[in-house]
Amino acid sequence: MPKRVTILLDDSVYEAVVLESIRKYGTAKKISHVINEILGQHLLRKKFDDVIKLLQKPKKVQIDEEDFFKFRRELSKRLEG
Hints:
The chain is 70% helix and 0% strand. By secondary structure, it is mainly alpha-helical.
């Protein structure tokens, strides 16, 4: 459910949001949609970037493919039993 909030925008930011609203929706009355889209994209991208950083970190343990599948089989047996 949408929440009503008040935000204070710099003049240049407000102008850019209004122009984007007019460009995309043909009216300045869709400012909330534009702000939601921008914030949503930014927040999702940040989460994605956090996952990429985590995947790129040096690994604390080295394991070869055979050991991984052996571990996986043993774990499956324990979970099934």
